[in-house]
Every structure is written in C-alpha cells, then in structure tokens.
Amino acid sequence: MAASNEHETLVARLAQILIRLNEGHTLDPKALAEEFNVHTRTIQRDLNERFAYLPLKRDDAGYRLESFYLGKLNTSDIRQFAAISGIKGLFPSLENGFLKSVLDATISQAYLVKGHRYEDTQTYAHLFPPLEAAVLQHRLVEFAYSGKPRRAVAPYRLLNHKGIWYLAAVEGGLLKSFRLAEISGFVPSLESFTPDPEIQERVAAEDSIWFTPTKREVVLKVDAVVAPYFQRRPVLPEQQIDKTLEDGSLIISARVGHEAQVLPIVRYWIPHVSIISPDEFRQSVLQSLADYLRREGA
Questions:
Q1: CA dist., res. 142 & res. 115, Å (int)
Q2: What is the largest CA-CA distance in the chain?
Q3: Nearest partner of 211 among 198, 223, 202, judged by Cα
Q4: Could you tell me if 79 and 107 are in contact, meaning their C-beta atoms sit under 8 angstroms apart?
Q5: Rg (CA), the chain
Q6: What span, in angstroms and rounded, lies between the C-alpha atoms of 296 and 55?
Q7: pLDDT tens profile 100-109
Q8: Predicted structure pTM score
Q9: Sign of the dihedral defined by the CA atoms of residues 147, 46, 55, 11, in that order
C-alpha cells in the first residue's frame, strides 16, 4: 500500500514509531518499511541507531520496548532523540505545543524533510554496542584501521558527521577520528582510562571530524550572486561575515583545522568564491585547476 503524505516526513515516521513502541506494539521492520515506503535498512537504522538510547528488545517477531519502560515515553524523550540524532535544528521549536502538533497525523502532512543522506551502516552495525559500552565504561579498545593495528585507544564519543559515523578517540596522546566503516578486528579491553575533561569538551564543541589542536583562519570573497547561500546559514566551519561590499559581495572568514574543510567548497563555488588568505590555500586551488585543465587538454 502506498504511503500517505504524513509518512513521507522524517519526523512523522519517527514519531509514529515512538508512539507504537510506547503502546507496547512489536514492530516488524519489513512491515514498517512497506508502510512508510522506505528501505528496510532505513527502518533498522531508526531502531538500532536513532533509538539506541531506548531499552529495545529484539526477537523473531520484531522490536518491542522492554515492559518496564512501557508508557514512559513523553515529549522529553522526543527532544532527547532529536538532539542525539542531529535533527533538533531542523525545527523552529521543540516545545510541547509544537511536538504535539507534528505528532498529529493531520498536521504532520504540512511537513516534509529532504536532503539528509546517510551511509549504509549494516556492514559495521555490530560495532555500535561494544563501542557504546567502551565509551560509557571508559575502557581502552584495540582494532585495525585500514589494515593498520591500533592499540590502547581511548574512545570518547561516537559521532555522525554528514551522514558518516566516526569514533572520536585518543591514540598516542592525540585526539583523532576513526571512520567506523574502516574499523575491523575490534577487541574491547579490560583496562580502563580516565577521561580528560578538556578532550571531552573539544569533541563536543568541534563541528567537524578534524580534531587538530590549532586552527587557521581563512578569508574568502563571495560574489553577490551566491552571497545569499552564505548568509542564510554557515557554509564553512565557524563562518563569520566580516564585511558586505557595495556590490553585495561578502568578505567572510572561517576557522579550519584542515584544508579539506574549505578547498572542496571553494572548488564547488568557482568562479564565485575566491580565497584571499592564506596564500598557500589559494595556490592549492589554482594548482588543482591547472592540473584539471591540463588533463582535459584545455
């Protein structure tokens, strides 16, 4: 059966799943996938990752909420879920009135969320429970990363950046990010570590996966024709609009830990965005353009 319009919204689908779990229903991922007109992997991701904080029980019949938790879900749980999953900023408010309105099947037809892209997590879904335990219990872990052994790694947080899951962890005294899809041979350790509050704060505050100890300022000029895209929301990390010129173009600055945070964006917006400083970043863009034109025989 074709899904109705309210099922096309991310918030409506997740809200309906929460309601049914709270009412004691056993949920079959395949049946939900058909009802909401999404892939079965999407429903499994909802249940295994987005609702990982809930005490779900899984058996041959499907997923259900543990009996001791039935009837306890409320708008606070939905707000917590929204914060964890990174969709909190999508909505104008998460106050009770707004939440109750979007949970209403009729009103939810007014909302449609598009643009979210996620990698397929099925190949490494088995890593979430032991990594979660290691983070919460402050246990060191071992694994191979792109085939290279990593030992005595202190895990701090599982984080999702632009649809890709990473482990924020300290190795050899350095805070790093490890893509979960590249981790194999995971082994939890009985040895514990004491979390560093400063590192915990860095992980929480950083809006990327580049945990470099120092950041560099990048200054760019943005032509008026694309200026609205940079004005309506930050396109670059820690973006600031420093000046609006008479022709409507912008001078903006950003702080980055790695050139990969800015160069692909500049290349995407060529010729309407150019780097003023640092000069080595500007030269890197020019060199990549020269290499491209040479390969194309231009």
A1: 35
A2: 69
A3: 202
A4: no
A5: 23
A6: 56
A7: 555 555 555 5
A8: 0.60
A9: positive
Non-local (6+) Cβ contacts of 290 within 8 A are none
Q: What is the pLDDT of residues 81-100, one digit of tens each?
A: 666 666 556 566 565 555 55
- 158 three-state secondary structure: strand
Phi, psi of 189 (to 5 degrees): -115, 155
Tell me which of 149-158, 199-208, 232-241, 281-290 is least confident.
Answer: 199-208
Residues 6 or more apart from 61 whose CB is under 8 A from it? 26, 28
Joined together, the tokens standing for residue 36 give: 């909401």
Residue 220 β-bridge partners: 252, 275
Q: How far apart are CA 74 and CA 67, in angstroms?
A: 16
Question: What counts of helices (H) and strands (E) characterise the chain?
Answer: 10, 11
Q: Measured between alpha carbons, how far apart are the two ends of the chain, in Å?
A: 53
Mark 155-179 as b/e (b = at least 16 C-beta within 10 Å): bbebbbbeebbbbbbbeeeebbbbb
